[in-house]
Write a structure and sequence with these properties.
Blueprint: H1 2-6, H2 15-32, H3 41-60, H4 68-88, H5 94-101, H6 105-114, H7 145-162, H8 167-177, H9 186-193, H10 197-212, H11 214-229
Helix pairs in contact: 2-3, 2-11, 3-7, 4-5, 5-6, 7-11, 8-10, 9-10
Amino acid sequence: MVSVARRYEGAGLGLLDLVQEGNLGLMRAVEGFDHEKGFKFSTYATWWIRQSIGRALADSSRTIRVPSHVREVYSLIDQSTDKLAAQLERQPTVEEIAELSGVSVERVALVHQHRRPLVSLSTPLDSDGDSELGDLIADDAAISPYESAAAALERRALVDQLRRLEEREEQVLRSRFGIDDHPMTLAEIGEKMGITRERVRQIEARALGKLRHPSVSRLWHEGQRAADAV
């Protein structure tokens, strides 16, 4: 997390603010993660962290004060974008965002233009979704030491929070997120623990509910600041 935030130093926000914004993205990732869709948690979380930091930087870079009614439109578009991205596992199109938010296509497009740094490489170039913006950019990409360090810090932060749960809750989420091995289905966890699939689902829901609680979010922030000091 700290390594990811440091990449954005000098772009308009201090490191502490960047880490805080990244933590908000990480919490969103915990809420929306579904391993059954085939994504690694670290990859999914990194997308949300960068999205959250990028959005905060774009907002902070505005030199003109934005009226409250305009901010409400931004918020509505943001919420719709996040909801669709979590459901579709990709960046939604302008048309999809407009349909869900009730904001006109023209206004959504204008907001996206104003927030150009937030455009994801996975943004569809057409309504069919066959081509993405990233297809136009060369891939030079082996995982950098920075990315490896970021993934390790994210994993450490998640593990620290899981330790605050009851033993069974921690065991279920560790298995679901694939922290100790590969991500497991509810049925696999149930067989491993000797309980029903439905019971595993209930334990998972209760545990995720605790992770979403504001007090846990505060503790998460404190844990990240402690990690930065190491």
